[in-house]
């Protein structure tokens, strides 16, 4: 008789199965969550590098053309204005006319200042009147003699404005030529640093990114995130996270860069502005969006844990139901097995009884009775019936028929019937 598995064994197997299923689910969910997380981070960085920062740079460039390059065009218009050139060529007669012209430029184009310096007289004209006469030995007049010698038509320079209490001003200085292409002076307009800083702050607020302007030598012209402690940083080489990138930025080797600032990854897009001879840098610190991705990862892992718990509970219930069904089937099989064992025992006992008939049986030599194991004599047919599955029916053999019924035998022989038939 075989025994089925015991209850402790079943419980141990069930616990091992549930633990295994839980580990498989947790591993699967954790792997899927981490793969999704790293894919999201990679996609986020790829979007910043290939789409977000270049698009922001394009948008800022468009606004710069409206906000900052517009004064360049104004200066160019002034330098090519026939009235201004004729006024200089005609001996600079009637100062009121040039003052009126410069004032109209300021009003119409909303500039902070407008000016004209004649090469012949070296007089500095401003909308309020004659400001001074520029001199080579005067440090504050070096800008004019630099413009006088430069090859390009204009420059953008930051200097204090003598006509406006030395307010720091961005000047667009444009060379003026006569009709034969000879240099006859310099003209242009100015924007206050405050106005440009407000413009930069607007860019930062609008695009939520840092905006930088640097010249061809890497000097920082303007920056949207200038803090008091950063005033000492005059070039990008003095900024720790930008210093390793400075050479590549200024050489124009690529537009997308990455650096590290205060432990965060910083993405940078560089763009050269030929109208200003500056580089536009747009940077974004990778701090906010990855935090959102991290929160999403935590939420996903929590959901995965909840799903795992639900699956484990459902698996436990399913195993319990299956175990009950299996136990019931086991009990039924065991009962059938016990029944088969009982039937087999009966068969074995019957077979043993049958085998007794095969041994030596005491039989009466006269009446043919058989003596049983208790010493009683029985008719042979009764003994065989009680000790086997056989039973008896009565007939008469031909010899006994001839001896007991001779006349009947003769009649059957006469009728053609064989002897011994009923």
Write the layout of secondary structure elements.
Elements: H1 7-67, H2 69-79, H3 82-89, H4 95-109, E1 113-118, E2 123-126, E3 129-133, H5 142-149, E4 154-161, E5 167-177, E6 183-192, H6 193-207, E7 210-215, E8 220-223, H7 246-251, E9 256-261, E10 264-273, E11 278-286, H8 289-356, E12 370-371, E13 377-378, H9 380-386, H10 398-404, H11 406-415
Antiparallel strand pairs: 1-2, 1-6, 2-3, 4-5, 5-6, 7-8, 7-11, 9-10, 10-11, 12-13
Helix pairs in contact: 1-8, 10-11
Task: Describe this protein's structure.
With 422 residues, the protein is an alpha+beta fold. The chain folds into 3 domains: 7-47 and 290-325, no CATH class; 66-241 and 252-286, Beta-Lactamase (2-Layer Sandwich); 370-415, no CATH class. The chain contains 11 helices and 13 strands. It has helices spanning 7-67, 69-79, 82-89, 95-109, 142-149, 193-207, 246-251, 289-356, 380-386, 398-404, 406-415, and strands at residues 113-118, 123-126, 129-133, 154-161, 167-177, 183-192, 210-215, 220-223, 256-261, 264-273, 278-286, 370-371, 377-378. The strands form 3 sheets. The protein has a 6-stranded antiparallel beta sheet, with helices on both faces. A 5-stranded antiparallel beta sheet has the order 8-7-11-10-9. Helix 10 (398-404) packs across helix 11. The longest helix has 68 residues, at 289-356. The model has no long low-confidence stretch (mean pLDDT 79).
Q: Can you summarize the main beta sheet?
A: 6 strands, antiparallel
Question: Total number of β-strand segments?
Answer: 13
Question: Helical segment tally?
Answer: 11
Oligomeric state of the chains present here: single chain
Uncertain spans: none
CATH arch. level architecture of the largest domain:
2-Layer Sandwich
Radius of gyration from the CA trace? 58 Å
Strand order of the largest sheet: 3-2-1-6-5-4
CATH-assigned fold name of the largest domain: Beta-Lactamase
The percent range for helix content is 40-55%
Give the DSSP E fraction (strand runs of 2 or more residues). Answer: 15-25%
Question: How many domains make up the 3D coordinates?
Answer: 3
Order of helices and strands: HHHHEEEHEEEHEEHEEEHEEHHH
